[in-house]
Amino acid sequence: MPASTAPVSTAFVAFRVLLPFACGYFMSYLFRSVNAVIAPNLQRDLGIGAADLGTLTAAYFLTFSLFQLPLGILLDRFGPRRVQACLLLLAALGAVVFAIGTNLSHLVIGRALVGFGVAGGLMSAMKAIALWLPKERWALANGVFMTAGGLGALAATLPVELALEHYHWTVLFWGLAGLTAFASALIFFIVPERHAAPVATSTLRQQLRDCGRFLADARFWRIAPVSMMGMASGMSIQGLWAGPYLRDVGGLDRAGAAQVLFVMAAALTAGFTLTGIAADRMQRRGIPLGRIMAWGVVFYAVVLAAMASGWVPTNPLLWIAFGILCNTTVLAYPILSSQFTPDQAGRINTLLNGVVFGFTFFAQAGMGWLIALWPRDANGGYPLVAYQWTLGLAMALLLLGLAWYLLPRRDDLK
Q1: pTM of the model
Q2: Which of 13, 305, 369, 386 has its CA 20 to 30 A from that of 53?
């Protein structure tokens, strides 16, 4: 039976709702980011280049995106607690498959299962936020919650590198499988049930029909391109290509690259919270959320241009700026969901997430294919020009997405 919809304290929501979901999102981001550090191990053990590495790592995003439509329906029908707890068990299974895999195909299957299992990491929490908190607090709650993702990215840098000094990467994935199963148990046993009233009377056919309407809605396609370009480039670089870039362009060894990745992940963690707090305060001063996102995208494009130049590839300030700004377009979620009703929030957010992560599969794999067009040097690295073309294309697509968002009606940014 659904829980009462009576108001509850902020502390209750924070500890009984958001914290358990944050554990699941922590694991989602750890899985998403870990290949940036273990990439040399995978290339050595599997004998693969940039193209295969990009495809292997991007398999996470393919299954992640394909499950977003059914995920939204499941979240709106059954609630985030049960759906997310079940999915995380599948992610744990994927980590086991990755650990016991003996060739590239096995690891692709394991990575794909992980992507499927963590597909609800963010969307389940956003659904819970829409159910438990008033609309004007969504941007702040989303930003604070996403700090857990930044902590997961942080854990995937120096801690993983230190673990690899003592254990094989397969042992690492056995440990990740256990932690993921534990996060599933926390959500299932601690989070209370709470449903929006319309869920009880909405049929599956009606929900599918609604999804079709959402995909045909001009409001959706106004914001989807800039969100796709921004988050896809950020996740592709942060989750994989930052490591090879630091080694090939910056000339860092594994330990040095891991240290810079740690700085970037720390900035990413802070950026999630700062974005939410800044958006919350600026909205209170009458600045539209869409305008805040637009300026963040402009600054992020400048960072991509600096990275493409190769001028200061290892400068911590560059990577701090990247970490803070690369997820600016996450503001697209509260912007879009605020234009629909709470009982539709699960589907509209997961549809956007599906589009974003589907494009990220092609972006992360495509970066590998593009980089691989240039020959490797004697040390197995790729030249600066390969990264210049790759990052320059990412910047150009981002600015095109922003132009599309701003083009229709600049005066109604919300």
Answers
A1: 0.81
A2: 305
Query: CB within 8 A of 408, min separation 6: which ones?
Result: 222
Overall number of domains in the chain: 1
Query: Is there a domain that residue 120 lies in?
Result: yes
The CA-to-CA distance between both ends of the chain, in Å, stands at 36
414, part of any domain: no
Domain coverage including residue 300:
10-407
Residue 161 neighbours by CB distance under 10 Å: 18
Q: Give the three-state DSSP class for 280.
A: helix
Residue 302 lies in a domain: yes
Cα–Cα distance, 319 to 311 (Å, whole number): 13
- Other C-beta atoms lying within 10 Å of the C-beta of residue 5: 12
| Residues of the chain where predicted confidence (pLDDT) is lower than 50 | 1-4, 198-201, 410-411, 413-414
- Dist. CA 343–CA 75, nearest whole Å: 10
* Residue 134 tokens, joined: 């008033």
> Can you give the pLDDT at residue 4?
44
DSSP letters, 307-356, are HHHTSSTT-HHHHHHHHHHTTGGGGHHHHHHTTS-GGGHHHHHHHHHHHH
